[in-house]
Amino acid sequence: MVLERLNQPGIKNVIQKDKEQTLQLELATPERFDSKTTDKIETQYPYEVGDEIWNDAQEAKKAGRVTGTVDTTVSGDGVLLNLLFSLLPVAILVILLLLFMSQMQGGGSRVLNFGKSKAKMLTKDMPKTTFADVAGADEAVEELQEIKDFLQNPAKYQALGAKIPKGVLLFGQPGTGKTLLARAVAGEAGVPFYSISGSDFVEMFVGVGASRVRDLFEQAKANAPAIVFVDEIDAVGRHRGAGMGGGHDEREQTLNQLLVEMDGFDTKGGVILIAATNRPDILDPALLRPGRFDRQIPVDNPDMEGRKAILRVHAKGKPFTPDVDLDSVARRTPGFSGADLANVINEAALLTARNEKRAISNFFLEEAIDRVIAGPERRSRAMSDNEKKITAYHEGGHALVAYALPHSAPVHKVTILPRGRSLGHTLVLPTEDKYTQTRAEMIDTLAYALGGRAAEELVFHEPTTGAGNDIEKASGLARAMVTQYGMSSKLGAVKYGTSGDEPFMGRNMGHEKDYSDAVAAEIDSEVRALIELAHDEAWEILVEYRDVLDSMVLELMEKETITQEDMNRICARVAKRPPMSPFNGFGKRLPSEAPPVLTPAERDQLKAQAEADGQVAVGGGNPSAGSTPNGSVEGSI
């Protein structure tokens, strides 16, 4: 239609758009096309006829059908658009690369930000822990409170010429509260507090650890006085030269920088370093010397009073039934760490909620203690009656031997319910905290450990695999008695073997043992003799009280668990055995026949007891006075 109109007069202008391949006609007057009136019409054409159409337009101009101009245009928009589309993928890749590098650098705009410290500074928004939240570690709290007081009131100490300690090392077993103490210092110090883990200094790039140490102390010194807390410092503070091979050890470079920052040529600072570890034995000696870690504070498992205090802290805000006695729970948890005690209270609360109860009772506390000691009860494990009877005799053997031994702790509970990896367990609990053991007590422990094996041999005429863990513990204890504690009269008070350095440290690997093969044979012989002595004692107890053992097994088969009260009833006629194998390794050194001296309190107690019995009190107890009390028991170790 457009090409036909080009051959007619009344056309004002002709425009040929070469890039779009479009021919546009501007008419002198509007005309009607397809029910529409317009003064502009256009059409598209194939590329091949573009020149022909241009010639036709020129002919129309010459013929006078076109009164205006005949023009052609080439649009530049396509070039820019093509350029944009070609550069767009490259731009997207560049943006993604920059975003990736920004995330790798911790979100900062600085390039290669690896050497910056990852320490977190305590802010006011973080929840605060105070010394009131710490229980069972009174000595450690007292030492750390002095650090806090020095930072807040330095004039009192400076008047006496006292210098603030540069470092405090908290060490102890896992779960004893080292990190909790550090959080308490952070909550009460009132000065900038930086927290970082020892593993944060370790990276895949050489030199990053030392750089982060420098940056950490630069930040702390800029805000001095300040406290820096390094958790698990053994990750970077291990003994230098402990690694295997002759290659470069990045950890040593980090440690060297840490040593310089703590007490180097530049003595300016006002920064206190608090560190925590459960392996102080592998730390470098240069790190432990005065001037770096001036104070080394042990954080041990709590004693009875400490356990009571810890339980009260974790019991706050939790509902208990009126009959619950937390002091009794503390007596049932000797050797538990603070984390264990917190877990006991939490497990009891979870068990209470699981059973749709509204208050924590003694039953759930007892179950929680068992879960922490031996693991959860495995109700799905179905044992045959014969296997259950074997387990009952095994646990009954442990319990009966422990009940009859003079130095064994009282039996608290015996159960044949499977827990964790065990098919049953016997729980003995000491009446008081003990920190040393006599040879007689350790031999009784051996006999108690072998009581289950002896019961299997006595009743079923063959042992089972259930005594495997008992034998392992008994063998380890007997070997320690001979090689570490000098409790063998044949081998004497000599320590045999190395100090127990770990093989992964690299030290002492390839070193020969420090005793001959002949001595090794004697050690094995003495260990075997101790095991046999304890095994025979357990056997004799079970033979003498076989009827008591059978009664205990019947009650275990019926109830599955028997308590201390049940044990006292079943074993009413069981008498305590005399001590086994008294120590005779004195040689020419004859022990004194005089008993230990009595303290004033012991003498008053003895006097009161004598008066109560209607006897004349025996005075003395002072060896220098030449008098000895009657009826006193030897307590020397």
How would you portray this structure in words?
- The chain has 637 residues and is of the alpha/beta class.
- The chain folds into four domains: 73 residues, no CATH class; 168 residues, P-loop containing nucleotide triphosphate hydrolases (Rossmann fold, 3-Layer(aba) Sandwich); 71 residues, Helicase, Ruva Protein, domain 3; 170 residues, Methane Monooxygenase Hydroxylase, Chain G, domain 1, CATH 1.20.58.
- Helices cover 43% and strands 11% of the residues.
- The chain has 21 helices and 13 strands.
- The strands form three sheets. A six-stranded mixed sheet has the order 5-7-8-9-6-10. A four-stranded mixed sheet has the order 3-2-1-4. The protein has a three-stranded antiparallel sheet with strand order 12-11-13.
- Strand 8, helix 8 and strand 9 form a beta-alpha-beta unit.
- Helix 14 packs antiparallel against helix 15, helix 16 crosses helix 18 and helix 17 packs across helix 18.
- It is elongated.
- 27% of the residues are buried.
- The C terminus is likely disordered.
